């Protein structure tokens, strides 16, 4: 049944891992990222030369690896990371896309941004300080965003004499906290980003540690998720109607499978209208196939001529989505303008954008102790809270816990188009 | 880095290789723009990134014709073989091509030649005026985040103000695969479907899809002269100057752009397979190896992008 995986030439066949890093200002995150890129020989010599030149111009004797990742003029002037940057590197075993998220003041929204597409998060702590509030915040965000794998990198081991006890205390405390958050898997690694211990190469100072280096773990962590486990979800992006002499009657629904597997012959239902038909054909970018799976971009043709347009969602008839106009969600507010009950917003969910009103903000989360603060009145930038929305039209939404793709949404300001809030649906939407 | 050691590895059913995942993501981006914007446009130079972009766009809407037009900003110093290739490609697929000419702006006095002779920064004004004139609201560019440190900060959907400017400190956060293309009249959105591709990914895709490129991407003998450590092609644009000696060398280009600032590299890679092997072993980025304009200052790309450059 497989098509592309076997026909692809071997050199292009390595898998891709998207991961995010999180750490507060002085934990050495930029150094870790620089070390990871440098020691895996992923830094081209002209970039390294540019970093050396810039470091010398600042009076630094050794190249400051943090300059590899701080790309903007303002970042380099202030020596801080302002915004998420994406880095690319490869080893013979895997390709990596790294969302390098800043640990500075705007930590939460930037980490939410980086974690939204990540399959793994690296949380950095300073071995001298142990688990601090910021560490708990990062773990909570990773749990909230349902990042499947978390790595705890206990950095600056060189400053605690590479002592096993120091590492074990931190690793145990973090593991307990992560378990209470529902993080499925934590791997703790003792490192020194500055000295290069256990980042890419094994440390000579910590023979008591027998686990993988950070890079070894990144290369081997299983990320292939079997899409047959999930119900198929196909948000319709665009209707392809050539109306050409060659294809006078072609009518295809273009989209990317958000989850699951679809086969020719499957009985499907179109949401929110609720009409059903059968998949007559699947076109995988010009090639006719029998089966497609997430996250392939394909075009479906149905046996019946239904009224289907952008924003509709095609799902198996035996695994429907609940559609409704009341949406309860956990959100991270991103914009400096606060979010308040009564606000009129747009909800962008998969390929559908609808008007909505913020009905309630029942609670705001205190990240330090994970307590819910009732009735906060508003959510400010970086706040995480619960929100109840009423949408102008029904939305077919899955719980975020079941699908990161069909359970996530944005709130957009209808006046100026700003992205206000990132949302994770809590439960299936209720009936009107 | 070619991964040849992976020959024979079998993947579990229902996985995607990284090239398939990148292709699927880029197609998703093209279709999002087609679904949400009124007047999108593809920036097209005939170079490898824009050819890969065009190939992906054609696949995304097949069997329907491409729902976008193309725009080339011609510096007047482009390689003749690339311009020829551009026109052949447009004719082959029956596409609509707009050309914004830097030379015309110089001729009518609206732009002035720079002392260093490079015309790359001069492209911004003709580009922005073409966008305004035709009221394009989404403009696809072939930019990749691996190219340059300012580009590493670039969103897939990048809002530009009415002056075409990019403000890196006021970018919209971009989460999941939910791209926000909302904009006010006069503003437009730059869209980068190849954001997550690297140079090697682009070449592996060219190999797999058998995409034909202008011949100058492959090793050939040509006349070049050395300036600032780069092999430049002589031409009416202003080279060689006194003391610069022309020699015939076996070279190829990793990027194509304005002849005054795009250098060739010594290479005997005359097939796509040899090019992939060469890039995988190279310790230089394509821009570091062959672009003079990025070396003007530590933040040259960021500064140009703020002004409206792609």
TrEMBL record, chain A:
Residue stretches spanning the membrane: none
Superkingdom of this protein's organism: Bacteria
A Pfam short name: GTP_EFTU
InterPro entries xrefs: CysN_GTP-bd, CysN_II, CysN_NoDQ_III, G_TR_CS, GTP-eEF1A_C, P-loop_NTPase, SO4_adenylTrfase_lsu, T_Tr_GTP-bd_dom
EC number: 2.7.7.4
Key words of the record: ATP-binding, GTP-binding, Nucleotide-binding, Nucleotidyltransferase, Transferase
Domain Tr-type G: 14-228
CDD domains referenced in this protein's UniProt entry, alphabetically: CysN_ATPS (cd04166), CysN_NodQ_II (cd03695), CysN_NoDQ_III (cd04095)
PROSITE patterns: G_TR_1 (PS00301), G_TR_2 (PS51722)
Keyword Nucleotide-binding among UniProt keywords: yes
Cited PANTHER family: TRANSLATION FACTOR (PTHR23115)
Protein name in UniProt: sulfate adenylyltransferase
Species the sequence originates in: Streptomyces luomodiensis
